[in-house]
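Protein in question kept underneath.
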Amino acid sequence: MWRRYERLRGPDVGGDVDDELEFHLQTLTERIQQAEGIGAEEARRRAEAEFGDRARAAAACRDIGERTQRRRRLAGALGDFRRDGRYALRRLAAAPGFALVAVLTLALGIGANTAIFSVVHGVLLRPLPFADADGVAMVWHDYSRFTTRTDVTSWAVFEDWRARSRTFGAMAGFTGGQVNLTGDFEAVRIPRGQVEPGFFEVLDVTPALGRTFAPGEDVPGNHRVVILGHGFWTERFGADPGVLGTPIRLGGQDYEVVGVMPAGMDFPGEAELWTPLALPEDLRAVRGAFFLRVVGRLAPGADMAAAQAEMSGIATTLGRENPDEADSGVFVQPIREHLVGDVRATLLLLLGAVALVLLIACANVANL
C-alpha cells in the first residue's frame, strides 16, 4: 500500500534536492580542506562562498524536478487509461449483450439526471437578470382574509406606498398581458410588459442597445415608444444594431423602437417587449381600480423583514384613513420566490429522485 501511495505521490523532490546540494557542498568542503590544509569550518565557509546562492539553486532544481514529475505522472496516467480502455473494450466486445444492457441502463440514469438538472439550473440556479436580485421584491395587496395575499393593487394605493415607504429605495408599477403585432410581421399576439418609467432602473437592468423610457413617456399620447426583448430583436430583426428608431405596429398603432434589453431579461411573464404604462388621470385617482403590480428595490441597509414590518404599518394607517381598505394589508415577497413560486420543493424532490435512479442504475450494472 505504501508503494502505491509513493507511486501516486511521486518522490520527495524537495528532500532530494536538499540532499544533493548538501552532498556537493560536503564534497567541495573536503577538497578545499585537503588542498589548503585548513580547518573544517573555514573550508565550509569557502565552499559555500564558491558554490553561490544555495537557496536560489535549490528553488531552480525543485522547479525542474517538479515539472519532470508532473510529466511522468501524466504520462503514467494516460498509459493506465489506454490500457484500461483497451481491456474494457475487449471485455465488452466479448459480451455484446452485457455491453448493450449496461449502456442502456447507464444512459437511462444519466439522461434523466441531465434533463432534470437542466430544469433545476434554469429555474433555481441560474442568476436572475437583475443586479443584486436579493434586494428586489414584489409588493402585493394582501387580501389573504378573503382570497390571496398576492393580489394586484390600484395606482392610487401604490402612490401612497411609494410616498410613505423608507425601506424601499425605489418602486415601480407595471402590468403584463399580450398585444397584437401586425404591420410588416405575421400577425401574432406576443407577451409584453407595460411599465412606468423607472421600472428598469428599479431592477437595475441596463439596455444592451439604446435607452429605457424617459420621464413623461407614460403620458397618454406621448407613449408610442417600445423596448424590445433580446430574443425578439434577434428573431425579428436579425440582431440589427440599426433597429433604433424603427417603427413597429402594436395593437393597431405605430411604436418607435428606443432600446433593446440584454439576453435573459423577460420580466414580467416572459415579455418579448415593453411599452410605457400610460394611464389616464381619472384612472390614477380611483383607489378601487385594482390592476397594478408593484416591484421595489430595498434601500441600502434595509432587509425584507424590515420592509414587511414597515409596509404592514403603512397598510394599517391607510386602512384607518380609507375604511374600505381596513381588511387588507401588504405582502412583501422576494422576487426570486415570486418567480420560482411553489416549484422549488418539487424540483428538488425530482432531482433527488433521478439521482437515486442513477444510483440504482450503477448498482444494476455492478450486479450484472
Residues 1-9 have pLDDT under 50 and may be disordered.
